Amino acid sequence: MGDMGGMGGMDMNSTSMPHKMMMHMTFFWGKDAEILFSKWPGTRTGMYVLALLFVFVLSALVEWLSHCKLIKPGSTQVGAGLVQTGLHALRIGLAYLVMLAVMSFNVGVFLVAVAGHTVGFLLFGSRAFKKVDTEKVGTHSSDLPPMSC
Predict the structure, then answer these.
(1) 17-70 pLDDT, tens digit each
(2) Distance CA 66, CA 111 (A)
């Protein structure tokens, strides 16, 4: 009964299969998680903290890219368009990495991703650290349009 017809005769009850880390489908607490890469960060606390720091920095970087002004006034339309397209690709790629990290369903990863976006917005998107021209309130001040869901 262990023989699965379409499985090439492989016995599914065999104990010779290598043990894999269980993938959680609900949120869980703990440092034993796989985040983004197989066997990373592993079971060591220091590597888990490094992984959390990595996700935090990625989240803050997404916010910086969402609110930065890198294209100089007077740039050619084609050059500005290419820079804008490259920045958009980078921002979306990093945002997808943060999303995939959160899909590890580790509560710590979720919390640092939210914290990274929050701190990034506070530093780069809010009025807390910007000199605001009262005549231009409400105008968009970055090279990229806001991310929308």
Answers:
(1) 555 556 678 888 988 888 888 888 888 899 999 999 999 999 999 999 999 888
(2) 20
Is residue 106 within 8 A of residue 33, CB to CB? The reply is: yes
Pairing of strands 33-34, 41-42: antiparallel
Contact in structure between 60 and 91 (CB atoms under 8 Å): no
Kindly tell me the burial class for residue 144, based on how many C-beta atoms sit within 10 Å of its own C-beta (0-12, 13-18, 19 or more). Answer: buried
Tokens of 115: 């914290």
Tokens at 58, concatenated: 């990625």
How many Cβ atoms from other residues are within 10 Å of residue 101's Cβ? 22
Q: CA 121 → CA 68, 83, 106, 113, 129, distances in Å?
A: 11, 22, 23, 12, 10
Residues 38, 21: Cα–Cα separation, whole Å? 9
Contact, 66 vs 146, CB < 8 A?
Answer: yes
What is the three-class DSSP state of 41?
A: strand
Rounded CA separation 84/109 (Å): 30
pTM assigned to the model:
0.74
Type of residue numbered 58: L
